[in-house]
Amino acid sequence: MSRGSETLNGGGVERRNLESLGEKMQLSSVFQAGGLNYALISDMETNKTIISELPPTLSEEFGALLRGSGAEPGSPLVLEAGGRVEGYGVFEFSYGPTSWGVPEAGAFSLMTYGERILKVVPRLNFKKRGVERAVLGLTPEDALLFVERSAGNFSAAYSTCFATAVEDALGLGVPSEARWTRAVALELERIYNHLYVFGRLAEAASQNIAATQTHALRERVLRLNSRHFGHRYLFGINSIGGVRRGLPKDERSALTTEVRLVAREFSELVQYFLSSRIFLDRLQGTAKLTRKDAFGLGTVGPSARGSGVQWDDRLTFPLEPYEDIYVNLETEDGEDTMARTMVRVREVESSSIALRELLDRMPSDGTKSGPDRRRADGLGAGFSFCRVESPSGDLIQVVQLDGGGRVSGLHVRPPSLVNWLPFARSLEGTVFTDFQFAFESFGLSFADSDR
Amino acid sequence: MPKIWILRGLKKGILTTAYPKSQPTSEEVPTRSLPPRPTDAADWPAGERGCPTGAIDSGDKKVDLGRCVYCRFCSSAGFAFEDGFGSRAGAMQASLTGNCATGTRHIFGRSFHVMMIDVGSCNACNLEVLNLSNPYYDLSRMGIAFTNSPKHADALIVVGALNQAMVDVLRRTYESMPEPKLVLSVGACAISGGIFRGAEGFVSPAGDAIPVDVVVPGCPPSPVQILEGLLLAAGRLKEEGVRR
Ligand code: SF4
Ligand code: SF4
């Protein structure tokens, strides 16, 4: 039996067993619960999430994804799709796990004959801590500490996803104010991550003033996080059944104003730098990912939307309050680094508008559910899941609780994990100098994919 | 066209922190970076829920900041957290380990090259280290610069919970640095494993693999706290307090 999140998303979830994937369906994740294998499928036609027992036909690419979700700490994960590249003068070049343009531990093998990249193979799990196993047997409240530290820069998405799935399993009624407060944190997180990506792209293009100014704007958002939520990276904001601190009324308008200022300054900055040919030339046509590949490889988030794939969990799996507020689905058809960047640029703007609405209309029914609302009848009898649109795309978590309400299973499908292969594909046939641009524009994080 | 950037700079005034000339502000050391302080009412060890990282030692009645992840679960058990300004100096918490010879530190004058290595972090510590080069902290004004090569590094910042896959990489990186060299463990993960102390992926504190000179507690420590660690490492700070 599954509770799913049926009650929250206005019928966005369907339970039915499929024989095979339909043409417009994307396999988003595969997990085990109660001895059965399930597939979580995104239907791009109806915008529904389908939970099915595992259909027999799975494409080769997803084999890697599945191995990835089961990988254990200490075992390297090589995300190789397709055959090896051979030919005269082809050699392999390794990058990482330290000393290069990415400030995280992770590696790549690049196949090249000298000038062009023929193939990129990401090598992961240098930083696998094993969050999914570390939380087994813990109370959900203690497990939150691990979950929110899976990927520090997506921590609001991680903790909201986990808390929501647990609350569903427990049948906890969570006050609207708490859910709206979580959404405020999610949008702030989106803004500072998008600013990070833009800043890093500007660095890669040696646009130092743009980079510095963008990083300064991001610092302002981090300080807003700290002032209003107590933590620069939004750790510790959630608890099971609510949030640990609400936003008092007098703080809300100040926050709205600050965010508007940041968004306005950012858009001025973007306008100026997008009038610079140097910057444009570096982004346009760089690292193309066709719409067909983006869909077929299971790409998520701004990277998918930059190739015209229309999916955003805020609209297709809307938790409260996303059914009630206006969020624009930002997509682009350019399929290149420029398109992915423009999706993020416009999402900074639309997030700031959403934030204003969230803060304006936030209900006042409290920030925590009362203990009396706790129901334990659904425990030990299935799984519940949640999807949250993190800054880099769809994050999925499937949670199981035992009869005593402790965590007995956690499956995480991080956004970065499914974006590695699209990233690798986008680099095939390009030159080395495109690498950094592709990497930054996909918003990839090793902490996130390794967890 | 570059003119507008100069104007913008003037319009904004000075963003850069006054630290270390004066105490950092509460914006610069956020409340969640302030350590728990046992009060008389404190309940050892940390109430029924306990401390999730074992940072609270009820025998010695001490809080081990190297383990603390600043979750504040112990606040319900009578441990106090300063939210106001009060003792800003108390927020500065980097410290020297027994390894660090004071003589070594004074060799580093106005040019100090730092490399960061990630051995299994959640990425927040990495970001806080990188943030030191944004205009709010402006590391370069103190002659400190980041480098990507261990061969050019005077100091190594280690972040993250040391993973099996990174043990050799960490050792080799350390070995290829020229002497004299300093190592900073930044964040609970690097110092003790932090929240991941019991996780399968965690091998040991960074200090068990290579000698560590300075620890900077926090989860993550804020940029000024990391800056404090760097100044301390470079011998530009008295053991406590603020000075150039
Ligand atoms: S803040 Fe958390 S980790 Fe630190 S001593 Fe208190 S309970 Fe332990
Ligand atoms: S100390 Fe905290 S912030 Fe730093 S890497 Fe570890 S979990 Fe992340």
Sheet with the most strands, sense and barrel status of chain A: 4 strands, mixed
**CATH top level of the largest domain in chain A?**
Mainly Alpha
* Fraction of residues in helix of chain B: 10-25%
CATH architecture heading of the largest domain in chain A = Orthogonal Bundle
- What is the rounded Rg of chain A? 21 Å
Q: Give average pLDDT of chain A, whole number.
A: 82
The amount of beta strand of chain B, in percent, is 5-15%
CATH superfamily of the largest domain in chain A: Cytochrome-c3 Hydrogenase, chain B
Greatest contact between two chains: A-B, 52 and 57 residues
Low-confidence stretches of chain A: 1-11
Element string of chain B (H = helix, E = strand) = HEEEEHEHEHEEHEHHEH
Whole-number total of structural domains of chain B:
2
Helix content of chain A: 40-55%
What is shown here, in short?
Chain A is an alpha+beta fold and 451 residues long. Helix content of chain A is 41%, strand content 16%.
Question: Could you walk me through the main structural features you see in this protein, from its secondary elements to its overall organization?
Answer:
- Chain A has helices at residues 60-70, 131-134, 140-147, 155-170, 176-204, 208-229, 249-274, 277-283, 291-296, 302-305, 313-316, 337-360, 415-427, 435-442, 446-450, and strands spanning 13-15, 25-33, 36-43, 48-53, 77-78, 91-95, 107-112, 117-124, 238-239, 242-243, 384-390, 393-401, 407-413.
- Chain A is α+β, with helices and mostly antiparallel strands.
- In chain A, α5 runs antiparallel to α6, α12 runs parallel beside α14 and α13 (415-427) packs antiparallel against α14 (435-442).
- Mean pLDDT of chain A is 82; it is low at 1-11.
- Chain B is an alpha/beta fold.
- The longest helix of chain B has 11 residues, at 223-233.
- Chain B contains 8 helices and 10 strands.
- In chain B, the strands form 3 sheets. Chain B has a 6-stranded mixed sheet. In chain B, strands 1-4 form a two-stranded antiparallel sheet.
- Chains A and B meet through α2, α3, α6 and α15 of A and α1, β6 and α4 of B.
- The structure holds iron/sulfur cluster (2 copies).
